[in-house]
Amino acid sequence: MTDRVPRWDNVRALSATLIVVLHTTGPAVPDGGMLQTFNVTMWPLRVPAFVILAGVFSHGGPLESRYARGLVGRILVPATLCWILLSTEKVLLGMDFTFHLSRWPWTLWFLMALLWWRLLLPLITQLRFPLLCTTALALVAGYFGEIGDNYAGARTLMYLPLFYLGWRLGQGTLFASWFTSRRTLPLAWAGLILGLGGAFLVWRPWPHSAVLYDDVPLPIELAWFPRFFILVASAALVLCLLRVTPNRRIPYITSMGAAGFTIYLLHPLFIRPFLVLGYADRVDTRSEQAAMFLGAVALAVFLGSPLMRRLARPLTRPPIDRFLFKPKPKAPAPVPQPQPPRELVG
Predict the structure, then answer these.
(1) Cβ atoms of 211 and 226 closer than 8 Å
(2) Alpha-carbon dihedral sign for residues 41, 189, 293, 14
(3) Residues 6+ apart with CB under 8 A from 297
(4) Contact criterion met (CB below 8 Å) for 59 and 1
(5) What is the pLDDT of residues 242-260, one digit of tens each?
(6) How many percent of the chain have pLDDT more than 90?
(7) How confident is the model over 318-340, as pLDDT tens digits?
């Protein structure tokens, strides 16, 4: 875990907001529409950025007891509680109750993948060429159809290189000059503009999800290339975004980024009624699409507020230590050291 750097939280506020916008508008917008174009273009600054920032705030040391307890209390238990809430909400909305142990519902795939990433990270850091190995694993995994949605296997492996890259960035040793040199700032702006333009041209006709997780219409010997291209392009764009983002506290934005986990965990509970009850299907005109977009941004801002962080703390930081874990052993009392004899004054 690295010290809190304002840049990381500022970017996480943006990526969390983009995720809320996608999940609000994505199921309802028409193909080729304004919001569909926006969602496709912003994809590399949404999920890849969130994955990389999850790596920034991760721990690559041994799986000691304190860290293992944190994985349970800060990922597994909150995800399970949110799973129960989502399932209960489905029943209240008139939908069938479903329970799949290997497939966590909707957005919770990220929490399952995060659990695997943090468990794997101490092992990955021991490799001689960790970035090369994780990238090769991500590319090879695409050839095995058995690796699918179960236990978030496909996404866990595909995003593993980006997660490791984020951890290295959090250590402060990788690309250090990229974040400090004045010469890199115009390069980052140029890369960001050109990269988003390329995302619009390349990914709009060819959905990124099909490239990353499913079969692609290419010969088998070339099937790895689109996945590799997307991983590299996404990493480059996120690095550009991180460089152009101010490394100072921005009123509300920085604290909102610190609440990124709360935003991600809670937003499906607010969005699902809007989608299931058919309100999103009625959105047609550009003004209505703009209103839905602004509503999604407002929801992200609301969920990232200090008030919601306090109200959601029993869900995001459940007090489970007292009844789930055995008491931590008390530190042994210090052994008194013998005092040297006083010098005789004669």
Answers:
(1) yes
(2) positive
(3) 17, 20, 21
(4) yes
(5) 999 999 999 999 999 999 9
(6) 34
(7) 887 766 766 666 656 566 666 65
CA 313, CA 30: separation in Å to the nearest integer?
37
Contacts of 259 (CB under 8 A, 6+ apart): 303, 304, 305, 308, 309
How many Å is the maximal CA-CA distance in the chain? 101
Which amino acid, one-letter code, is at 278?
G
> What's the CA gap between 177 and 175, in Å, rounded?
6
Burial 226-263 (b: 16+ CB within 10 A, else e): bbeebbebbbebbbbbbbbbeeeeeeebbbbbbbbbbb
Residue positions counted in the chain: 346
State the Cα torsion 317-252-167-162 to the nearest 10°: 100
Kindly give, in sequence order, each residue whose CB lies less than 8 Å from that of residue 96, ignoring residues fewer than 6 positions away. Answer: 90
DSSP class of 103: S
Looking up tokens 């978030």 gives 152
What does the alpha-carbon distance between residue 236 and residue 191 come to, in Å, rounded to a whole number?
Answer: 8
For every residue of 97-156, DSSP letters joined together read P---TTS--GGGHHHHHHHHHHHHHHHHTTSSSHHHHHHHHHHHHTT-TT-SSGGGHHHH
Q: 156 is written with which tokens?
A: 């866990």
Cβ–Cβ under 8 Å, residues 157 and 141: yes
Owner of token pair 């250590």: 171
**Pairwise CA distance, residues 67 & 62, whole Å:** 8
On whether the CB atoms of residues 177 and 183 are closer than 8 A, the answer is no
